[in-house]
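Need a sequence for this fold. Nothing fancy.
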């Protein structure tokens, strides 16, 4: 097998990223909307992956590692394998769950990744390859502490207030404005029409904006921090390692109040992911040349 190029894909719930590397040089990058094969139809996943790779100029990769949301579900992994195999003929394709990318991007062989973006999940890997994942159930079942969950919990609070004839409060005013809704019926209708979790998560900044002046919004943020910290505790119990803990995901890294709520429970030990997860996909693609992905 020739020495590269290596293609890394980070296929998430809100967005997907591609990075093509030759030697140590990044020769091409591209972005597209998320393509979670569990949350979306096969046709939509195919269209978004096709668009992502179509935006990527550069030489044909020798190896591709795709870290994909939902890849722990056999049917979803099979879909990713089939689609990427067809889109990248002659390229060796390895599909792993997207949480695998976090530790790889941090340059770690073992540790705990805590990810909060559209959804939430924790992944741990110990020496010798022992691993576990906690959370990541998807937005309809859980993903507590993730963006879609935050918006759902905030909306429930606002709708309770309006049902009782109370003021919507700062949280309600901001959420109604963001949704373009005049009342509770329009708010509920708007949210029900948001078929994708990433579209719910896009409203999450409203909750953080309201939190300093709205006790219920602040309580939702605090509960999110508790839920995310509990994921790390679950990994520690399952895998038998304390850390290092790497914080990742657009929501957790971009919302200081959420990070503070997590650190309140986990302490200052966790480190923030400095490289994008797609860099971890490139690292895994390199290792795949030597058949070493399972030993990472």
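Here you go.
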């Amino acid at each position: 097998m020739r020495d590269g190029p290596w293609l890394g894909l980070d296929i998430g719930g809100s967005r997907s990223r591609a990075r093509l590397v030759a030697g140590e040089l990044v020769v091409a990058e591209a972005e597209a909307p998320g393509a979670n094969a569990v949350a979306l139809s096969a046709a939509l996943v195919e269209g978004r992956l096709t668009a992502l790779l179509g935006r990527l100029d550069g030489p044909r990769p020798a190896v591709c590692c795709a870290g994909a949301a939902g890849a722990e579900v056999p049917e979803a992994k099979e879909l990713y394998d089939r689609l990427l195999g067809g889109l990248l003929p002659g390229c060796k394709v390895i599909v792993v769950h997207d949480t695998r990318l976090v530790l790889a991007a941090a340059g770690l062989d073992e540790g705990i990744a805590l990810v909060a973006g559209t959804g939430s999940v924790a992944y741990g890997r110990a020496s010798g390859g022992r691993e576990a994942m906690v959370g990541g159930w998807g937005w309809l079942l859980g993903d507590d502490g993730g963006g879609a969950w935050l918006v759902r919990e905030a909306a429930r609070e606002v709708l309770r207030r309006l049902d009782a004839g109370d003021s919507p409060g700062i949280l309600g005013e901001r959420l109604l404005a963001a949704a373009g809704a005049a009342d509770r019926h329009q708010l509920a209708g708007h949210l029900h029409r948001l078929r994708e979790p990433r579209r719910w998560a896009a409203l999450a900044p409203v909750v953080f904006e309201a939190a300093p002046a709205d006790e219920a919004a602040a309580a939702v943020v605090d509960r999110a921090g508790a839920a995310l910290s509990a994921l790390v505790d679950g990994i520690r119990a399952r895998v038998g390692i304390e850390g290092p803990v790497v914080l990742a995901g657009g929501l957790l890294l971009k919302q200081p109040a959420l990070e503070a709520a997590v650190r309140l429970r986990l302490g200052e030990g966790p480190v923030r992911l400095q490289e994008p997860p797609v860099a971890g996909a490139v690292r895994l693609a390199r290792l795949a040349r030597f058949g070493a992905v399972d030993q990472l």
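For context: Residues 128 and 295 are 7 Å apart (CA to CA).
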